[in-house]
Amino acid sequence: VAAGDLEDRTWYVITFDDAYDDFHTQVLPLVKSLELPVTLYVPTGFIDEPGKPPISREVREAARLKPVTWEQLEEISANPLVTIGGHTHSHREMPSLNDAEILADVRRCDDALTEHLGVSIRHFAYPRGVWDKRVERLLAGRYDTIALVGGGALHPAKSDAQRLPRVPVQRSDGMRWFRARLVGRLGLEEQLICWAKGLRRRLA
Half-sphere exposure (CA, 13 Å, Cβ side) for 110? Predict the structure, then answer.
């Protein structure tokens, strides 16, 4: 979930990353039945190479993680309730890349999405929510919005379109915990998770 304040209107967006095939089979029917706007951030390399899911660790179910096909993504994109966003081609953590690699990665993604779907890519999310000031400077002005994962509550009135906060929703969350996340009651938990992920990356 991301939040922002645009033209004095507060808005929340339900967002999905990585374009797994269950977006087509499970989410799209709900989008249609509930008339619920959503954004899907697509790493195009996953579609081109389905055997390489964009996950940061080995999981037992990895072999079953499949992307949508380009044909399915065309159907998804044709629904006016779904906005397609860029998520790089390789899904590599952007601070680990040099400037030329970063720009090539986002351009390859955006160009592929435009070629296959006929849409202009105006929105972006950092792979795995990882970014730094150098990456931010490189992408400045390229997209209307950039979403990032961060701890704390959503404060739409204070949001920057280039730093839209996102609140992850866990599989185990019920409505009680979902509400708690939105107002920041689990902000410390999210900050600890971000810290642990950063430590793991540094050790790796």
Answer: 15
DSSP 8-state assignment for residue 160: -
How far apart are alpha carbons 92 and 104 in whole angstroms?
Answer: 12
Residue 33 burial by Cβ neighbours in a 10 Å radius (0-12, 13-18, 19+): exposed
- How far apart CA 75 and CA 105 sit, in angstroms, is 25
Task: Give this prediction's pTM.
Answer: 0.82
pLDDT-derived band at 117 (thresholds 50, 70, 90) equals: very high
The pLDDT, as a whole number, for residue 161 is 82
**By C-alpha distance, which of 75, 73, 74, 107 is closest to 89?**
107
Report whether 155 contacts 2 (CB < 8 A). no
Dihedral class, residue 51 (left if φ above 0, else alpha if ψ from -120 to 50, else beta): alpha
